[in-house]
Specification:
The chain is elongated. With about 350 residues, the chain is of the alpha/beta class. The strands form 4 sheets. Strands 1, 2, 3, 4, 5, 6 and 17 form a 7-stranded mixed beta sheet that branches. A 5-stranded parallel beta sheet has the order 8-15-9-10-11. It starts with a strand and ends in an 11-residue tail after the last helix. Helix content is about 25%, strand content about 25%. α1 packs parallel to α2, α1 packs parallel to α6 and α6 runs antiparallel to α7. It has 7 helices and 17 strands.
Length: about 350
């Protein structure tokens, strides 16, 4: 067991965390990064990324994450393969405890633990991820040009994904377990008016069907879904080329519950146009606070913001040694003046 001290601790290692590390390291903040259980996050299960700027040809998600990690390390970020299991943000420096037993003591913290898509937990789903099964139409819809796909869900996300996919697919089958949608009325009206969308009511997906995978020349692929009528229990197969699961995401924020302000879904709340949380010196970036866009490029942008804001915060702390009132006022936190006297 050891204690590690740093000006900036980054918790999480996806596009947001790695970008924060790159910017912080280049600013001579000597950041430390705790990688978590799945370094690289959701991109580690994304085969081809076609919409990340700077790559003319598709780039594999794991490779993109490896390159970000290597870039962060090159500029001096110190990486730890550990999992943060407890945090104390009540006093500075902040203390974060790892599953290894190590402690990480930091003047500032960037939370970039991301979010995970909710999955159905059915046969074939995990096997065909990246081979026809996806949780992001914006990311993967382009691969289904001229093909038939299904979207599973009934909320705003499912309706929006179905509408988006009509720009690529020839047919979109929207499968919902109830007899009416939970999404907004305007989205329901658009779905009903779109001739490319067929709704299968009162059904759940029982299994994802596919074939191949025996060799490189015969890669695995989705060929359809088996759905079950929730009333009669009757099964039927629907032939298609891809399945998009759109039943929501869960932010990886359990360890921060009660430590930073969150909304009812567990997403960390930040100040407008900022990554600042309600705890001065603690910042949140990427899918851990973003339930709207959830893209690698937007997460990376927020990672940049978090590092720059952390750098400014540290400069404010230094300036407070001589003039705390003026420093906090300049940082936009005049409310904290009395706390630092």
């Amino acid at each position: 067991m050891a204690t590690h001290r740093t000006k900036l601790l980054i918790i999480g290692a996806g596009p947001a965390g790695y970008t924060a590390a790159i910017y912080a390291a280049r600013a001579s903040m000597e950041p430390m990064q705790v990688m978590g259980l799945v370094p690289g996050g959701q991109l580690t299960i994304t085969k081809d990324v076609e919409n990340y700027p700077g790559y003319e040809n598709p780039v594999e998600g794991p490779f993109l994450m490896e390159q970000m990690r290597a870039q962060a390390e090159r500029y001096g970020t110190k990486m730890f393969y550990d999992l943060i299991v407890d945090v104390d943000f009540t006093k500075r420096p902040f203390v974060c405890k790892g599953d290894s037993g190590d402690e990480y003591v930091a003047d500032t913290v960037v939370i970039a633990t991301g979010a995970q898509a909710r999955w159905l937990g059915i046969a074939g789903e995990q096997h065909y991820q990246g081979a026809g099964v996806s949780a992001c139409a914006t990311c993967d819809g382009f691969f289904f040009r001229g093909k038939q796909v299904a979207v599973v869900g009934g909320g705003n996300t499912a309706l929006e994904e179905a509408l988006y996919l009509t720009h690529h697919a020839t047919k979109v089958t929207l499968i919902h377990r109830r007899d009416k949608f939970r999404g907004e009325k305007i989205l329901q009206d658009r779905v009903a008016a779109n001739p490319k969308i067929e709704v299968v009511w009162n059904h759940v997906v029982d299994e994802i069907l596919g074939e191949g995978g025996e060799s490189f020349e015969n890669p695995k692929r989705v060929t359809g879904v088996r759905v079950k009528d929730v009333n009669s229990g009757a099964l039927k197969d629907i032939a298609l080329d891809g399945v998009f699961v759109a039943i929501g995401h869960d932010p990886a924020t359990a360890v921060f519950k009660g430590k930073v302000r969150m909304d009812e879904e567990g997403y960390i709340i930040t100040a407008p146009d900022s990554t600042k949380t309600d705890i001065p010196g603690v910042f949140a970036a990427g899918d851990v606070k973003d339930k709207v866009f959830r893209q690698a490029v937007t997460a990376a942008g927020m990672g940049c913001m978090a590092a720059l804001e952390a750098e400014k915060f540290l400069a404010t702390l230094e300036a407070m040694k001589t003039s705390p009132g003026a420093a906090l006022a300049e940082a936009g936190r005049p409310d904290m003046v009395s706390a630092w006297r």
